[in-house]
Amino acid sequence: MDKKSELQILHSYHVWLPLTMSWLYNQVKYLPKSVQSAIYCDRRITDSGYDLPNMYCLEDESFISSRINFYLRKAGLGRYSRHLRKTLREHSFDVIHGHFGNMAWELLPAAKAESIPLITTFYGLDINFLPRQRPVWYKRYPKLFDYTSLVLCEGPHMKQKVRELGCPPEKIVVHHLGIELDSIPFKKRIPDTEHTRILIAGSFREKKGISYALEAIRNLVDEYDISVTIIGDANQNDSNKKEARKIRELMESPDLKPLITHLGFQPHDRLIEEALNHHIFLSPSVTASDGDTEGGAPVVLTEMAATGMPIVSSNHCDIPNIVHHEKNGLLAEERDTDQLATHLRYLIDHPDLWEPMGRYGRQIAENAFDAHKQSHRLFELYSAVINKTQTPKDQNIRIDV
Question: 295-347: per-residue pLDDT in tens?
């Protein structure tokens, strides 16, 4: 790495980087040129398109060495991890940025040993699911909060949840995840025929609410000429199998199968291409039975709003912070398929609302979620920690319409 850079930041996440996590890549990609970024991970995914020049990966070590270092860090003994300590010592990082609370906790011992400031970003799974499944996290997080300089979160709901985990409120900052507006065109939605195209995008996990989305659509089959495109699939995780099976059974049911095109996981540019050819985005997230939630809000909601598409979603976590009810979409209560169907009917029956809702959604994205602006703000947060100056205040969504 170039030692002459103004700031040197080490970002860390276990796997760099799944196809569905463009929102994490964007945080690093758009930082100012004066910032030299590096990645510390256990393994890399080489075909996702998210590789970066300075990557320090455990899988590059010998098998025995990588396993020893991996388990030392997982056990909270990262100060004894030769690989991690060597990486930190050789490059004089100004800040370590742990992406997800559990990742930041694993980095904590080494950060303390090397006296490097630590910034933590929570995203969702780390707030609800982990503590519920493993109560030890209720003891681990306060130790993380004691040392970490800042905790970043997506919105006011997530901020409150982080406070409930024991983080001092003065350390928590609402910071939105940026999207690539330069590559997301706005398209005015108008009905070209009587046919309405509905898009669903997300992994086949319970918290995404896809089964409820399909049940809602089932209520419309006999009333409207509609089609549904689904982008996403099941991840290789045993906890998803039951939900994935339920979704596939719905997709294959006689009344829904003729309407549905299932594309599986797709690159980000294909997602945007499909979005521009659809009229309504349907994404009713829920609190899963295992406690998993969105934490904040799915980034795909912001991206779909940016394309100019009205959204039907749910009153879940920070989704109402992005989907403003009756402004750029309609919100139902979690798992309420009748209410979801009612909202879909309303939008299909009132295509004159599509354009103003779309323009409102685009303005939300431009005002508060532009990746260039957000990365510059992230740079300001890094600088405040390093220079021990006043931290930027919580980010709010302002719409001047």
Answer: 999 999 999 999 999 999 999 999 999 999 999 999 999 999 999 999 999 99
SS (H, E, C) the chain: CCCCCCEEEEEECCEECCCCCHHHHHHHHCCCCCEEEEEEECEECCCCCCCCCCEEEHHHCCHHHHHHHHHHHHCCCHHHCHHHHHHHHHHCCCEEEEECHHHHHHHHHHHHHCCCCEEEECCCCCCCHHHHHCCCHHHHHHHHHHHCCEEEECCHHHHHHHHHCCCCHHHEEECCCCECHHHCCCCCCCCCCCCEEEEEECCCCHHHCHHHHHHHHHCCCCCCCEEEEEECCCCCCHHHHHHHHHHHHHHCCCCCHHHEEEEECCCHHHHHHHHCCCCEEEECCCCCCCCCCCCCCCHHHHHHHHCCCCEEEECCCCHHHCCCECCCEEEECCCCHHHHHHHHHHHHHCHHHHHHHHHHHHHHHHHHCEHHHHHHHHHHHHHHHHHCCCCCCCCCCCCCC
Residue 196: give its domain's CATH number. 3.40.50.2000
Span 241-295, pLDDT tens digits:
889 999 999 999 999 999 999 999 998 899 999 999 999 999 999 999 999 999 9
Identify the domain containing residue 96 by its residue range.
7-178+370-387
Question: Considering the domain boundaries, does residue 397 fall inside one?
Answer: no
Q: Report the alpha-carbon distance of residue 131 to residue 121 in Å, rounded.
A: 16
The alpha carbons of the chain give a radius of gyration, in whole angstroms, of 22
Q: Is the pLDDT of residue 5 over 60?
A: no
Predicted confidence at residue 400, as pLDDT, reads 61
Q: Are residues 165 and 251 in the same domain?
A: no
Let me know if residue 150 belongs to a domain. Answer: yes
Whether 197 maps to a domain, the answer reads yes
Structure-token pair, residue 39? 């990645």
Q: Are residues 154 and 263 in the same domain?
A: no
Mean pLDDT of the chain: 93
| Structural domain count of the chain | 2
Beta bridge partners of residue 199, listed in sequence order: 229, 281
Specify whether the CB–CB gap between 119 and 98 falls below 8 A: yes
**The residue to which tokens 């540019």 are assigned:** 269
Tell me the backbone φ, ψ of residue 44, rounded to 5 degrees.
-115, 150
